[in-house]
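job 3f2a | input accepted
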Amino acid sequence: MPTFKINGELYKQLVTFGAKNLRANYKTIDSLNVFPVPDGDTGTNMRMTIDAGANAIKDLNEESVYEMSRQVSRGMLMGARGNSGVILSQLFRGIYKGLKDIKEATVKDWSKAMMSGVTQAYHAVLKPVEGTILTVAREASSKAFKTIRKNDSLEKYFDIFLTEAKASLERTPELLPVLKDAGVVDSGGAGFICVIEGMQKYLNGEEIKEGDILVSQAPSVNASGFNAHSTLEYGYCTEFILQLQYAKVDIPNFDIKIISDWLETIGNSIVALQDEDIVKVHVHTMDPGLVLSHCREYGEYITIKIENMQVSHNEGAIVGAGKVDPASCNCPQCQEMRRSEERKKFGIVAVATGDGLTNTFKEMGADYVVSGGQSMNPAAEDFVKGFDLINAEYILVFPNNSNIVLTAEQAGKYYKDAKIIVVPTKTLAQGYSALTMLDLSSEDPDTILSEIKDVISNVTTGLITYSIRDTEFENVTIKKDDYIGICNGKIVNANPTRLEAVKGLLTNSDIEEKEIVTVIFGKDVTKEEVDSVKTYINERYKNVEIDIIDGGQDVYSYIFSIE
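job 3f2a | predicted structure (563 res):
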């Protein structure tokens, strides 16, 4: 039976099935990576982004398609990962805007909303590139909008849309030479098609075989810090999301300070945020029951998490009556907390992968380190958590990965409690050099950003990883499991031996023109091999100063910062 209207419940099912279909195919999308290296994460990023939207509505019963789309957009906004995930979230944000005040959308309404999604996505990207997910979404949406008629069904709309989307995807290598050279189509466009195909499958009554569930491994709980003879010293880390209720408060005029000021009287380490009719709270307190009882005066709880901080932390001190040292909390937010008693001028958030690099960045002045990199890009929400814990007027963000810049910018765009400045560091090598030379003494954001840009413009980034397939790329013949040298984003050599790959990389770099090389080695590298690399550089490039850092990173055996 053909479908002619989309209400809230149907939209929920369309999004849910779109997420299911991507979940079943995301590994195929990952394999479309241009470089033959083990960091093809487009499918993973898009999957986790739309899963965040689907999870936001899984228990929601709502007749209005506009309200349902609003919740999807909110979930995807905070869950967006990587460039492809951010663009996907913006497509759905534009759909939400295009459905404004519509309770039940006609096919023509839906067609206009899809066009609104394309407009929103293009506006979200500073320099839109054709031959990507943007092109596929634009050409398919435009074709369907121009072709669909008033009395046509939603099934026909998706037929038209997907026919053009698939044709557009096949044309992407003609628009992006790098795709043509690698013999692949655009992975973001392919992921977007997976989502739309999932929607079509729901309309057609087709089943989708579930993919594996991506779940963060839950840490084991060490209860040795608290037993039947213990006395509670450190209190509870208490977090919740509260749905404000019109029956209890005047939501449009509700001031979050009502909650945060009261929380100051019974706890500390407080984060209290309001997003329209939703309130998110984090507090350390000796009496979580009192907190929950009081805050229920304003609404009802959506989620609640309470942890005894003494269970996994045996050190710490009471800061005051009923107040707890943040260092004693085992939640990620509190482990990274760097809040000052007084609001400072500048704070720093940096992205790093590996324990060694994370600790190095903290020692260099980062207030909060977001865990992430090539194999797992952080979500916008991960940045927001860091912003919340830094009491600063300006927050400098070092993404340190070209696929994370857009996510950081999205997080900063919607954050209101500080001015977010996203520094254009596209590699960990650039981030390391920028933090090394960071000078905040001018206290002028524009001057500081300009100086940082000067520093990173002088950095050459060298990477060593391994190949996941046989290929020939930019005149370099590569065999599966070869070690690959990448200099400033260009594959320059491949070799079965890692040390020889390092030598080839450095030979193809501009190290002879530079003064310092920082060697950041990964978890799979031995001390003996690092010594061999150091010896080679000392003997071959005598005028270069060498610094060695145990980064502990995955994926890349070596990261070279040459400056």
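job 3f2a | Residues 460-562 form a domain with the Hypothetical Protein Tm841; Chain: A;domain 3 fold (CATH 3.30.1180).
job 3f2a | closed
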